[in-house]
Amino acid sequence: MAFVCATITQPTASDAGKSCRSIKPPSSAAHRPPIVIGHRGASYNLPEHTLEGYRLALELGADYIEPDLIPTKDGHLIAIHSFDLNVTTNVEKLFPGRARTQFESNDPSLSGYFANDFTLAEIKTLKVKQRLEDTPARSPKMDYIFTIPTFVEILDLLHDWTYNVLPVIERSEIKQRQKTPGVYVELKNPSWIYNDTHGEVKVEDLLLDTISNYPFAKKMLFDPKSCNDDSEYSVPPLVLQCFEAETLEYLRARMEADQEMYRNVLPPSVYLLDVCPDSNFWDNLDSLKAIDAIGPNKNCLLDTDYGTAQKLMKEAKSRNLAVHPWTERLELEFVSEKFDDAEEELTYLFCEMKVDGIFAENVNLAKRVGAAGCEGESSTLLSSFQSIFPREVFPFLVGGLIGGILILLLLKLWSCHSQTRMLASNYQQIQPLPENFDQQQTV
Prior knowledge:
single chain, 443 residues, alpha/beta, ten-stranded mixed β-sheet, 40% helix, 9% strand, globular
């Protein structure tokens, strides 16, 4: 195990516009497995976006639980992926006749039981089921048992896990910090919500208000002491993600302006991509200030030629952006035909593409593949050196170490050779004893 001196950096006003802790593990965090984001909880095992699913994801070792947030009619943020509640709940049975038609929506492509047409009290009467019903791989036995959680309830779950559960299952305080998970928040279609409510609901402000009013927010999400960059890397406690870059820019600006609340402990922002990036995308991205990572469809790295996939990773790396593809699912219908199964696909993403993290519905598989590492990785001894020294200088240090050892061996050989010659010379100078030496000694 490598031991290093951990330096805690306090954020200053000059740090404005930067995330205090990177979503991209530093090079000093040797062989830190890629980040595993529990996509909507542990949604392969349990219905998505439920407290029970999030809790299971934490138990399986997810670095993040990932809620999609949508506002209710009365201004509460709830976790659900689809605006249409009928996709994953029994809303049609409990509230018949409450669905919108396409003509009642400001988007002709949308219809259904819109979540933002229901109050929180109404939402809480609904029960959740598995989204994917046409596959025998996911059990329906847990359908219609769990309810839709609020964002506050999710924060409570994370707080309980961090401060009550971890201390009783992990003795080492260092490992507790390393294993402390975070919440990876997606705001769903902010511009559509704003238009649908005729400008009355700006979901970005609703998110910030909810966070500001949460009693443990400063301690759990915005503690300046959490800003470190050493081998004891732990993930940022809060990540903001969205398909709309304007939302991420707006949130960053609001948080920069409120130093009393956020204390410059700015959460990383992840720009989700619905199309694979081209040269125009990278040119436009350079004009944005708040982007710390991108979240492309994994097919941008899998269902394309190797050179194009490598270019995406190279462009991101040149801008110091983390890459978190979505979404790894166990069923073969979601696995590229290039691979036999999801495990092989994940290994390729981790070891060949070198992605920094993955959205995974099968958390345990993603953790296992990450922990297995990649062929040809350094030994534990080399890992120790890598945890102390930056990756860029590591080859020079290894070369210097090997060279130093060779020089020491040569010096040792020269020393032994010199001593041998000296002994030989001394031996030649020794005079033979007289024949009657023994007799002389007895006289």
